Amino acid sequence: MGANIQIAISDGIASVTLAAAEAKVNILNAGFLNELEQAAITLAANDSLKGVIVTSDQPGGFIAGADISEIESVSDAEKGAGLAAVGQRIFTRWENLPFPVVAAIHGHCMGGGTEFALACHFRIAAEDTTLALPEIKLGILPGFGGTQRLPRLISLEKALDIILSGRTVRAKEALSSGLVDRIANNHDLKHSASDFLAEIINNRDRVESARMKKQGGWRRLLLEKNPIGRTILFKQARKQLGKKTGGHYPAPLKALDVIETTYGTPLDTGLKLEAAALGELIITPESKNLVHLYHLSQRPKKIGERFDQTIEIKKAAVLGAGVMGGGIAHLLASRGIPTLIKDINQQALDAGIEHARTLFRKEIEKKNGASSTLDEKMSLLTPTLDYTQFADVDLVIEAVVEKIAIKQAVLKEAEPHLPSHAIFATNTSALSVSDLQTNAMRPGRVGGLHFFNPVDRMPLIEVVRGKQSSDETTGSLFKLAGRIGKTPIITGDRTGFLVNRLLVTYLLEAALAATEGVNWMSLDKLITRFGYPMGPFRLVDEVGIDIAVEVGDTLCQSFGYLQPTDLLQKILDLGLLGKKGEKGFYSYANGRCQGANHEIEQVLPATGRDAGHNELKRLLYLMVNEAGRCLDEGIIASPEDIDTGMVFGTGFPPFHGGLCRWADAEGLPDIVKTLKDFAGLHGERFAPCAYLQSKKRFYEKKP
Q: Alpha-carbon distance 532 to 47, whole Å?
């Protein structure tokens, strides 16, 4: 029929196959949507049809969603609403077909793909199916009917959860909620869909009745089937969103408003309001910044393709079975890589294996997996006290104590047992990879992998290129990071690399401001109002005050323009370690913050002037300046890498789009002027770097 969609008819059943031309996934761009509409028109005109089955020929999934570039290009609310209305019209054509339409779904079914499936009358999903309406994560809402059809199909409470979180729904959950009607074996989807359609044609009422039973229950009766219950449900949802978003993300609240306003109204009325809301959201700075972050998350795939020669990691080893080592071993095994985990102490080895087991157990419970899966995963981990099984490893990651002498000794000990092609990666947050290479047998095979703690939750990895690291080594580590589900950036080898250099600079400045009379608690509140998950002093507690002192001293020694402070050392001298010791700037019990720790008043008075916009600029502009220095020095290649590192590695507020994106919105010329003023007040660390003075923006404006 067209480049993207094929129709075959046999015995009154139409088989519609989605297969975007010259693409790995089906994307709902303008051309694809046009073919979907023409297909619906063609099917509607065929009086001999008894039913339709829609499948995808793409191995990756059903439909991956809308075209992000088309979303990004919209700068007018009316145009945005118009694009939504077009998609709604096309999907409604499918919904209005006079015979049953079954969507046979496999793999990823995201955004507009899920909305199209909702417009089909019935859904059967392969076991590997994942569905989602993730538009909230792009700062918009489902605009092709998702806010209208999902609450009509499943319980309102579950629909709100799926839409307002943007989370992924696996096949089993989709079945239990009524989002899909059947689950099929991955290899038998088309045959099962054919049988399901025959069952529908034979007795449609029975199939629909079975779906309705999943929507029942006393909870739905109380919360959704009467006005008072619905009022309570929407009020609770609004309260939870307020806590979760801090008022920084307009999309979830707008989606909630649309669902509440249109619940129980005719579909066409609801669709109009949905389209108008999408038009409002699609032009907001928050949406543009979140789309920018989406592109950043996809960049590593393209960067990885630039490395021609890389080593496939078939077997790995981790040296050091502490929390970090156990976490790294778990991560490798979770992606199917057989992994040795070595330590010099049996007790430590047992603890590392148990840590990995705990992480696997949590994953399996979250996914409602079988208990047998735990044994399968753990079988990929082999504990050892020696190097006898290292002869065929492709990668060794050391995760021992953060002391260069110890890491050098471990490398010297391990290297003779490794094959010549093996890569040795040091997991370090600040130590020099180049220094480690100095006495290596194969220095080109040595590189850095900076994992962030906790390993299983932090998405960023810094791939550190030492002076002698080969392209093959760097490329192999970069691709491995993507394979294990992380977002990598490549950094040069200088103290702190990128993330810790910027982050510790910011933490030191917060400490200096506090010693100058700024109330430290108000600084934390100021930064959380900006959008960070926590302020600088709460973050120091999380990191550990002892570690913050050590890393801060190291950075001050490496970068002479930074001003040291003895504040953290004084607090450490009080015996306060931070969260791990249950006392730091704050007190903790069972891992939860209990409020300010009054022992701090021995060093910092509880009084002091409240932090304001001037202090916000002081902390953030200093990081902007340091980012410019990193670009000047070639430590990092691009503003995109800086934004990736800051958002995925430090929690820089996503709705700002990253540090460089935010700085562009502030205006680099204004930042340079303020930095010069700060330099006169606070010292040379604020003197604007050459990069900032030579640029008007980090990102060049698109034509």
A: 59
The 3-class SS string of 439-508 reads CCCCHHHEEEEEECCCCCCCCEEEEECCCCCCHHHHHHHHHHHHHCCCEEEEECCCCCCCHHHHHHHHHH
Q: Which amino acid is at 404?
A: I
The number of domains in the chain is 3
3-state secondary structure 231-294: HHHHHHHHHHHHHHHCCCCHHHHHHHHHHHHHCCCCHHHHHHHHHHHHHHHHCCHHHHHHHHHH
Structure tokens at 60: 């990756």
Examine the residue annotation and report whether 462 is marked as an active-site residue of this protein: yes
Place 218 in a pLDDT band, splitting at 50, 70 and 90. Answer: low
Domain that holds residue 207: 5-283
| Predicted confidence (pLDDT) per residue in 385-428, tens digit | 999 999 999 999 999 998 999 999 999 999 999 999 999 999 99
CB 5, CB 36: distance < 8 Å: yes
At 635, list the tokens.
């430590």
**Catalytic residue (choose from 462, 509, 615, 640):** 462
pLDDT tens-digit map of 418-451: 999 999 999 998 899 999 999 899 999 999 999 9
The CATH number linked to 361 is: 3.40.50.720
For 346, residues 6+ apart whose C-beta sits below 8 A from its C-beta are 385
What does 86-102 look like in DSSP terms, one character per residue?
A: HHHHHHHHHHT-SS-EE
- With 0-12 / 13-18 / 19 or more C-beta atoms within 10 angstroms meaning exposed / middle / buried, residue 329 is buried
| Domain of residue 654, CATH code | 1.10.1040.50
**In this structure, are residues 262 and 156 in contact, taking their beta carbons and an 8 Å threshold?**
no
**How far apart are alpha carbons 485 and 137 in whole angstroms?**
18
Instruction: Output the CA torsion sign for 430, 306, 331, 655.
Output: positive
The structure's pTM equals 0.93
Domain assignment present for residue 309? The answer is: no
| Residue 611 DSSP class | P
| Nearest alpha carbon to residue 110 among 94, 83, 130, 139 | 130
Q: How many Cβ atoms are within 10 Å of 700's Cβ, its own excluded? A: 10
> Which helix (H) or strand (E) covers residue 55, if one does?
strand 51-56
Mean pLDDT of 191-202: 97
